[in-house]
Specification:
Elements lengths: L14 H21 L5 E6 L14 H15 L5 E7 L3 H17 L1 H4 L2 E6 L3 H11 L7 E5 L9 H8 L4 E7 L1 H6 L7 H8 L4 H8 L5 H16 L4 E7 L9 E7 L2 H14 L22 H11 L4 E3 H7 L8 H13 L4 E3 L12 E3 L6
Parallel strand pairs: 1-2, 1-4, 2-3, 4-5
Antiparallel strand pairs: 5-7, 6-7, 8-10, 9-10
The protein binds S-adenosylmethionine.
S-adenosylmethionine binds next to loops.
Length: 368
């Protein structure tokens, strides 16, 4: 029998939870900073909010979020309001959440006077449907954190509807290990079909990606569903191995239609994981190597990809956001080296030879 969602065993704070919260907090800071410039209000939805704190007293995502929101609100007074909606279905977890939030906001009222907190003891799908149907495109820029224990209760149709609203983004804990484990179980077929928004997930993933492992194919299928059916432009996954065995436990998937959002998340994910690796691979990491990890791989990739083209530094980064594990500073180093080697030419440099995002790069034809 699976443990109920309020059992203490499920609320042990682990290193990978800390990493998840670190990514969440850093991304929210950047996201609020970017959007708060042009919008008087932004919303954060913690769709599987949890108890508010873990067994050892570590903070849960709702506290991480309101603390980040309050810090940003103080730094950027032009932002009128940050609204944080917390959705939690389990009654006991909800009562704990309410208590923890009350203690925090009442103990430091000055900190939270510009952060509006709304609590829902309900399920994600119902609340999200109401928002989509009643508010729709009038919704302020919103970030939805979807963090279930397993894979049930996250219907693809709901995620798609959320993402169809302008300026919304989602950040999903995608439990690929569990989907893989229960793929053959008849009891789980409805939930798996619901998660992907299609019947026959197993057959489809096998047919579409015959050369990938089952787990890789399941992740790929979900990404493709977001791209192809939900029409999301940028999807970035962060691999998380929760234990020493280095088997993937879940992916944190960020989906957005804005290149700035994807770029920000990619930079954060790159810097947050195990040093020098992409993705957080767990405590025993050390052996894994990733294709395209060394910078000469990036050089060849860029020469091939942009052969005979002239485009800005920013366009180069944006066009390849989902294709490489490199971030802006790596691109900058590699482009300078290519220029030094006489492979490309760069126009519009900064006064001291810097490489601004507006710099124009000219690539030679492929066989040169
Ligand atoms: C992984 S925990 C959330 C952890 C929290 N986001 C954090 O980082 O501290 C998942 C939570 O979702 C709740 N839950 C389960 N099904 C749900 C649903 N359909 N809608 C909303 N909450 C749900 C569970 O009771 C549990 O508290």
């Amino acid at each position: 029998m699976p443990l109920p969602d309020d059992s203490p065993e499920k609320w042990v704070y682990k290193e990978h939870t800390r990493v998840k919260h670190e990514i969440l907090s850093k991304y929210l800071s950047g996201w609020i900073r970017i959007l708060g410039r042009n919008h008087s209000r932004v919303c954060y939805f913690d769709c599987f909010a949890g108890k508010g704190e873990y067994e050892d007293g570590s903070k849960g995502s709702p506290l991480v979020a309101i603390e980040t929101a309050s810090r940003l609100k103080k730094q950027f007074p032009y932002l009128n309001e940050i609204v944080c909606d917390f959705i939690e279905k389990n009654e006991n977890n909800f009562m704990d959440l309410e208590r923890v939030i009350n203690i925090e906001t009442k103990t430091h009222p000055e900190k939270y006077n510009d952060v509006k907190v709304i609590l829902h003891n309900n399920n994600f799908a119902d609340i999200a449907s109401k928002i989509v149907n009643k508010v729709g495109d009038r919704l302020a820029p919103s970030f939805f954190f979807i963090d279930p224990f397993g894979f049930s209760g996250v219907p693809f149709e709901i995620v798609k509807n959320i993402l169809s609203i302008k300026r919304t983004e989602v950040f999903i804990t995608f439990m690929v290990r569990d989907v893989n484990r229960f793929l053959d179980s008849s009891r789980h077929q409805i939930n798996i079909a619901d998660l992907y928004g299609i019947e026959n997930v197993q057959e489809t993933s096998k047919l579409k990606y015959p050369n990938l492992s089952r787990e890789e194919a399941l992740l790929r299928l979900y990404r493709d569903r977001l791209h192809e059916d939900a029409n999301v432009r940028y999807i970035f996954p962060f691999k998380v191995c929760a234990d020493e065995r280095l088997q993937t436990t879940y992916y944190l998937i960020h989906a957005t239609n804005h290149p700035k959002g994807c770029k920000l998340m990619k930079e954060i994910m790159c810097k947050t994981g195990t040093e020098g690796r992409f993705g957080y691979f767990g405590p025993a990491e050390g052996q894994l190597t990733l294709e395209l990890y060394d910078k000469s791989g990036l050089k060849n990739f860029l020469l091939k990809r942009f052969a005979s083209r002239r485009l800005s530094f920013e366009d180069i980064i944006n066009e390849t956001l989902m294709d490489t594990y490199f971030i802006e500073k790596d691109y900058r180093t590699v482009l300078r080296e290519l220029e030094k080697g006489g492979y490309i030419s760069i126009g519009g440099k900064g006064p001291r030879g810097g490489l601004p995002l507006t710099a124009e790069i000219t690539f030679p034809p492929r066989d040169n």
